[in-house]
Protein 1
Amino acid sequence: MKSCSVTARAHTNIALVKYWGKKNQELIIPMNNSLSLTLDHFYTDTTVTFDKELEHDTFYLNNKLKDDPKIKSFMNLVRSLANIKTFATIDSVNHVPTQAGLASSASAYAALAKAASCAAGLNLNKTNLSRLARRGSGSACRSIYGGFVEWQQGTNDTDSYAVPFLENVDWDISVLAIVLNSKEKKITSRLGMQSVVASSPYYQAWVETCQQNISDLKKAILARNFDEMGRISEENAMKMHALNLSASPHFNYFEPESLIAMRLVEELRQTGISCYYTLDAGPNVKVLCLRKDVTAIKKKLSTVFSPEQLLLSSPGPGVTLI
Ligand code: 2P0
């Protein structure tokens, strides 16, 4: 195989019904379906160059050399699928405002799956690309598509992948991320969800109710019922964080400012503005709202947070070659 270089761009996604727990750690098969919205503002560009002269893979993140075993095992997977032995240079740049803490394994592995598979000569359809991205990081399988996307849990490597639910979002939805600094290093998603599956007495209830959340959320999206969509998303996020609080040992991702931000969103709601919050495995609060209300919401949040802490996104596209 001659030296071949491919660049792909993938965007992050925010889960409205979250993935929190695996039934297979190695293959990354989740315990429940999840449903996300791909965002336009935060993305990763990754170039993969296979080169016969190389004796190992070399990975640069934001132009800095990194030793990342997860990237190496992912590249081994791509090589085994393509039946090649050539090593590669992987050059990845996160287009996320510095210090935002929003860099995501979702955009990273979606971009890497696309760039590496194309550079290796594999011509994967989107289903197989989603399956491949999933092996890097679960949430990455959803970033193959734009708009609203469902990850169908499946039972094994072949039937666990994302499908588009509403790719071209004809709806003026915005996501306002409130960027907060975490003082301490929190538990990773991977370990956090593992601990919850093993020890939360409420885990079975999570799995059972997520299926209903997904079907109600899909109805709300199809009806363009923003309040229903927001309510389901906020409740599902709090249910995920309640699992963390109920694990043994218990943990949480909240900072004091996270609770302040949530309170401000609730106060805005009491004044008649439709807005809802969701949080992932970190302290940042993401506010789901309609574009027409962004100015009023920013005004209220600015009483506590600086303009640099408020980052606005809209629905974004799926993975592409650039
Ligand atoms: C999600 N999160 O659905 C959930 C909600 C965080 C909270 O997927 O172990 O980096 O690599 O599959 O995908 C973050 O976990 O975990 C995540 P792995 P991942 O977006």
Protein 2
Amino acid sequence: MSAPAVCTTCPYCGVGCGVLATPDGAGGLTVSGDKSHPANFGRLCSKGSALGETVGPEGRLLAPRLYGKAAGWPEATAEVARRFSETIAQHGPDSVAFYVSGQLLTEDYYVANKLMKGFIGSANIDTNSRLCMASSVAGHRRAFGTDTVPGTYEDLEQADLVVLTGSNLAWCHPVLYQRIVAAKAARPSMQIVVIDPRRTATCDAADLHLPLAPGSDVALFNGLLRHLDQSGAVSEAFLRASVEGFDEALAAAISAAPATAETGLPDALLHRFYALWAGTEKVVTVYSQGVNQSAQGTDKVNAILNCHLATGRIGRPGMGPFSVTGQPNAMGGREVGGLANMLACHLDLENAAHRMAVREFWQAPRMPEAQGLKAVDMFDAVERGQIKALWIMATNPAVSMPEADRVRAAIAGCEFVVVSDITAETDTARLAHVLLPATGWGEKEGTVTNSERRISRQRTVLPAPGQARHDWQIIAQVAAAMGWGSAFDYSSPAEIFREYATLSGIAAQLGKDFDISGLAGLTDADYADLAPVQWPVNTTRTGGRFFADGRFFTPSGRARMLPLRSAPTAANPAFPFRLNTGRVRDHWHTMTRTGQSPRLSQHMAEPYLEVHPDDASRLGLRPAGIAEVTSPSGRALCRTMVTDRVRPGEVFMPMHWTGETAALGRADALVASVVDPVSGQPESKGAKVAIAPFAAA
Ligand code: SF4
């Protein structure tokens, strides 16, 4: 008799699809979509359906390694604790850092954050989610007072107009795209607009595509705000009751240059979009990395929020701004405060009352009063020798950080580096002094939160390989070895979750949106059976939309519109092309998992450079020939894909390939460490590069 299917959650994108995983009895498993899960109702994309091909012992780290030699857990744990403790004693708490990941489960994230902020006493914990959605967090906080995603996935199906801006949903959030396409098939009057410099696969379903000049989003949405005002689409009643800053935001929009000039879009196309948006009550604006990954990402987010606030199109069915997250638990990381500028449960690090509440709750010996180092700053500090002990959990910054070659050298030069991961075969793991084997998807228990605030369980399907341990266990062991055992004496993820849910109730009393106090009393059995649930979960409500009552989490209770100005980046004649980076359909991050599946590699087998035919012809680049791409920070070789999907003067490279699979095909080696001043998110879609045919020496 075969083993029963286990309900779990996909470990890839922020859609957070439910998966039924069935062990095959030979160490593998088969998967299918969970029809009862409200994110996907049984659907899976190519990545999710190939999960069974990505598990197994191949390439796994099976035992701790200490300075290149196999070691036992007691030895490895003691060494990590000793080196961190000595560094802190000698140089202070801010001389150490954790760089964590949206691949961690919420319980892992919570424990890591508690150790760094409450016990080590530094805020130097940041996450690879900084690279994916930090601008959305900052934009939400500026407009709403909290990092609140207002809507639900149902809104995308109920909308009469879905605007997808800076979002290749068809490849990056495929099941959400499938839901929108199905909704449009059932109701053809639904309109879909795609705003993207590239003609991506998402445009296949679009009624209108706006190939705007990269970086001109603020100009586009400022122009929309002006149009909304002129066309009478602004909601005076909503502005009066629920919004502040409208006059200033509108004045800034009016004083800006016409959108045509900066977006490069013809007047007629712009006006078609503006008229459609103004004339459609039920409009959802979905945005993702094309908006967030920018030196002006937070302003771009607020430019979108401004338009929804001006019209009152928020908090009601079928309307609202909607930030979709890249990673499976980017949202969980935000909620537990796994960012250098936040505390757990959306509490504010720089608010003394919030710090005190968390400190008392944790019975913590200390708590930092200032923000820690955000991702880019953290690796700069590693390079300077200011960070002397670094623990990297479940991520591969030697490939994925901007100026990846410089980051790789910085990690290599750090005095003490710990990497906990499922494999020793990442570019980052090869640089570690201590390697700690962690359990991966299908081997661990915990929760993740998807883009619509839905908390789902990840469950164990397969046994942990070798000596691998769960991330929360590894962190708690090190905490105990550093002398804080009683605060980290957890016996299960359920126990961690209950503590976290209890803390969220305190956050709610302090006026925060994140409240899962209704789950604080879960028994172990309740936690084991926990069905997907959208927060908030408290005594009065479960899930649904925020802001239906027109009240926000600012001191005045009103949302804030912001005056915004476009800030185009200066051209660099030595590097005349603008490099856009992003995902391909069938790979994930640096391919640690998807690289195991031959089926997934069939879609795109190697890195490539999309280049416009006019540029290719002018530079002598042949289709499928090799191009050399250079930037001030790096160099990459790529096969050229000559296509008019990109605009002249712009090129595109996927971001997945590592030093392993293509020695010089790493897109992030080319990306500059330029960040948004508010969110700290790097501009991963606007590197200045030069391209030429590769001539072998
Ligand atoms: Fe997994 Fe995202 Fe695909 Fe769903 S859409 S199966 S969460 S990768």
Protein 3
Amino acid sequence: AKKVLTVGEILVEIVATTKGDGFGEPQPLIGPFPSGAPAIFIDQVGRLGTPAAIISRVGNDDFGRLNLDRLAADGVDVSGVEVAKGEVTGSAFVRYRPDGSRKFVYNIAHSATGRLVLTPAGEALLESCDHLHVMGTALSVSGLADVAREAIARIKARGGTLSFDPNLRREILETPGLRQALEEVLAHSDLFLPSGEEIYLFTEADDEAAAVAELLRRGVGEIVIKRGDRGASHFDAHGRTDVAPLWVDEVDPTGAGDCFGGAFVSLWLAGASPETALRYANAAGAHAVTEIGPMEGAATRDQLDALLGLTKG
Ligand code: ATP
């Protein structure tokens, strides 16, 4: 089977359990949970039994170990994760605003992950993996961005495929040079997985159909738009496929897009039709929101089959 690789941040996430605007007042928190968008993505790939690996860097501490233990338990090859002595694993605090949107406070740039360099183990993964998944958050931190760019060049040169999820948080949009870095990744993408409005970041088009048509014309192979509790859509040269959201009880939306992407890429690489990949990805996104904690809702194939009503007996 083909092997999926991602490059990017590993961190722990600590989540507020009450809604509010600022971080000025003490509030009840839950966590730490293993996290980092690329880590959530690759954990979902691993849980589905697809060969998976991540290039990253953590501190030699409990937060780093929490992540490595989880990823390894779910079948992810963590040989490309450097454990840096005397450095710390990053963290993110999440708070839900009264309107349900999220405020993130990131502590990544000065963490072990922010000083990522390619190690011999990382180099070996670039030679052995078939597909690379890159996320916008990785491009917002300078050390990570350099390794991500190198990884794209190497995987593409070997004939591998690339998927790209901009995953842009309001908090990282101000990063200098980010826009150009995103455009460069998009230009090499076989599969583009924006959520909602992110499709408009890369074109002048003012409606979705025009934006999609322009990106396909520019050479993006397939586009999958994530629409939260409104489902998702797939576009390629043959046309459009929509999928309705599955009914689930949402307790924590964080991680839905990453699990959706992990499932889509797993099925896509294994040769499933766009319709099938979309159906499973939609189910993985729905499953993800049913658990508190970003990675806690990553699903196995059996869980997705059950959610899709495909379980026998
Ligand atoms: P995040 O950045 O928080 O991981 P995202 O914005 O990238 O998320 P979403 O669009 O929120 O991604 O969710 C991805 C997919 O998961 C949706 O397209 C949908 O298929 C599924 N999904 C998300 N939320 C729900 C929900 N409440 N009910 C059913 N399906 C959902």
